Fold these 4 entries.
Entry 1:
Amino acid sequence: MANMLRNPAMKRAFTTTSFRPTRPQVKHPFPPTPRPTPRGGPVICPAPTGSTPPNRHFGTGRRLERLKDQGSFGDGFMDIGSFFQLRVLLCDCVVSMSAPSDSKTDKRCRFLELAAELRNRIYEHALVEEHTIAIHRNNITQPGLLRTCRQIREETRSMYYCGNNFKIETGAYDVRPVKMFFKQARGFWSNYDQYENEVDRLGNVEYGIRHSKPPWDRALKWLKAYHDNETPPYVCPHTDHGYGGFCEDFAVAFDMVRAMAPFYWSGIEKVLEKYREVANEAYEEYEDWV
């Protein structure tokens, strides 16, 4: 052995090949388990910086075939380079398919960007009716167009309330739908202010009431609402010419409340009680206020 090491050629071959260890390569029977997705969700592919992403998904098939030919998928293994190539390829495909189109047909026409004259014509066609609009307990809500947004509401309220005529069906002098309607129409009527601009006046309002004379408790509620400027004065329907003067008696009570407007309601109510007694004595043969 010593003689062999003295030979330079044998020494060179022995030192370069004999004592270099090699690690056996073991091929795993199963592919490696992929790493779990972070809690925040899947990895999001960043969009290109340009205004319109390039249409790079047309070459997707050829690029996948090239990766397959390189042996990246066949044996269940994928090297790190092929993995990132596939990731970039799929990201480009998703971004390209979800990119907005440049076609002119995709541009939206926003309603509030239309000219004011055109919007007013649309409002008039949608809100102004040729017939009288019936208002009752089950139909007291405003049109949906008035409840869309603040700007449309401001642009349509005057057209709806001043361009239509209304008839309020109150049943047995129920003042609740009347108060609700005039609350919604606030700004286009008033009991004590004179309007300089007649264009902004509320349209004609009639009452459809099936009883000729209200019960006294409901009459007081209506008169108090008028005193508090929640409703205008009651007007007798054209088809009701008194039935013994009952409707006129109720209408006169509103004139009394108007004359005593500066006073508190408690004092006005006492005066109305006296008026009730006088009216009942004048029409003993007819129905009294109860």
Entry 2:
Amino acid sequence: MIGQRIREARKAKGLSQGQLAQGMVSRSYITALENGRIRPTACFGCVSSVHRVV
């Protein structure tokens, strides 16, 4: 659910997973979020505030 929203918001902004991660988290972390394997943490809060994704 949240992973799908993250993916849709990322794509709407034209960002790759690597661009969204941008040195704050790993690309694999973004992949795991989007695929529902993990839940967002405070680290993702930093990323989303920088990119205003969610």
Entry 3:
Amino acid sequence: MDSFAHTSKPARAQNARVKRTKAALYESLASLMLEKNVNAITVRELTSRANINRATFYIHYKDIDDMICQVRKEVLDDFSVVLNTHHTEVSGERPHSMLCDMFRFLERHASICKAFLGTHGDAEFISLLRNKLLDKCVTDWAKLFPSHPIAYVPEYFSVFVVTGCIGLFEHWIDTGMRQTPEEMAYMADQMFRNGIRFLQMPTPPSF
């Protein structure tokens, strides 16, 4: 039986209130990050926009920086779960499925991802996102193409793919997500499949 069934009604109500409070703070943080640098955001204006008193904010966070760190970790941890459900090197799964899930993830977390990836975004978030994608790509390409004649090529190809991926994420969000996650995944998959022919070259050209 689900352990949730054993949780008391007051505890469940408290959990629901915490979730609503944090959701309101997340949305307010995201909207403020679209307007100004994080360093310029104050607890007063954040809580005012979220319609939450400052005492409630301090129950959950020490300051704005602490909130940014916690939100960043939560989003990236959830993104890691998406990546880790795909095992290209084991199953031979095409990138399309993972790409679909990544774009769906961005769609579900659109407001905070737009804030983190935007003009006044969070450089640490982008760096960690890039590293997570890069680790996944390097691992997969190395196992899919173990005998490439130039050992470092799969790593460089991974950088190419990850940089392109993040660029697609940013542009899709910035332009209002006019395409569906499935359309974006198909387009990205086709781009990467054409690029992947480079890895399938039997020998490098002479320079």
Entry 4:
Amino acid sequence: MEEEEELEVTSAPVATAKEHASPAISYRFPTPRIASSSRVRRPAVPNVHESSRKLISRGVTRFVLGVSSYIDGKLLKRCSGFVIDWDENTRSGTVFTSAHLICSTSPWDEWSGSGQHEYAPDAEVRVHLGEEIAVRGQLVYYNRHYGFALIGVHMDQPPALLACFSSEEVRYAQDVFVLGRDGRFLLQLSNGKVNCRGPSLYTRYHYMYITGGEVLECCTGGPVVDFDGVVMGMKSYDGFVSCSIINKCLHLWRRFGCIHRLHLGLKLSAIKSLGISAQTEKIYLMSDIVDTGLIVEDVSAGSVAEKHGVGKGDIVKSLNGRCVDTTAALESMLLGMCVDRFDNGHDLDSSMDVTLGMFFTSGSVHGTMKFTVNASNDVEVFARRTYNVSDDQDLSTSSSMSPDEASEDDIW
């Protein structure tokens, strides 16, 4: 056996007087040995520049087009889009883009019934196939809730490549590119990571977000792709809509010509978007919940959730037995319920039973709540609650029931 290498450390004398000086003391420590197998291996950092060049060389950017809209000959919006379908018989393609293209007025609160988006479906739409090539497009469909539009366009030649939506879920911290075209049909490309932050209380909760490079407004409606060029979503004016939701929307539209969804009447935020904070610890100490669940930020007046006692500050833990950790995941699950039910032959306007696993903060109790929700093709409008305040009443009084006041049919 080889002798261990020794390291000699000699301490300096500590006495202040010659007669009290102590002899030097020697310590011997074995030199630590690190096995080669225990070395820390860090994952390879993706090469952004190399990956962006591959997108171009593989022809991925060729399905990215420019789209613009006009009212009375005046430019309304300039966005981007991408080809998702091609019909050989009619020589026409389908361009997926943002409904922002035909939006004339955008409210600051998307949930407000008095300030809804105003759209101009009769606006002239042009699809830019090249730097000097623009053809008239036809608005086929647009969805006000999810904010996307489908444009039909005649093309002499089939597209070199059709966009392919991923069948996998978008991952947080995933590296992605946002692609688009500017007014001169020049490619615009930015790189970033999918962020775990959630939408604000004034935007729909199906949005996801990207942090990183600046994204120009002309890229709105363009594809969000991974480093292999697979489409992970569509860039919206605020954030992006994931492929998981888009795939379900297209399935419903292609089969039924409309997109029905369930209206819960809740504004929610994800616990995981709080990060490490005092609020996260408080929630954990109170409910033993740390990384999943959605906080109820507000409840729509007159909604089924309000009638069943759901109040601000409560936590939605699960939907039909499945844990929920983000608002986008909840939206995808609700859409999935509609897809499964309608594919099995049920009417589009039929109601569905929903089971929510809950933590009620007012009583600090866990429970399960089951109620019936209607599917609707309309935009979900959030109704604000009103309070009749007298001299004997406090402004903080809530109109919702506590879990202790609910009937046996409500629970639990």
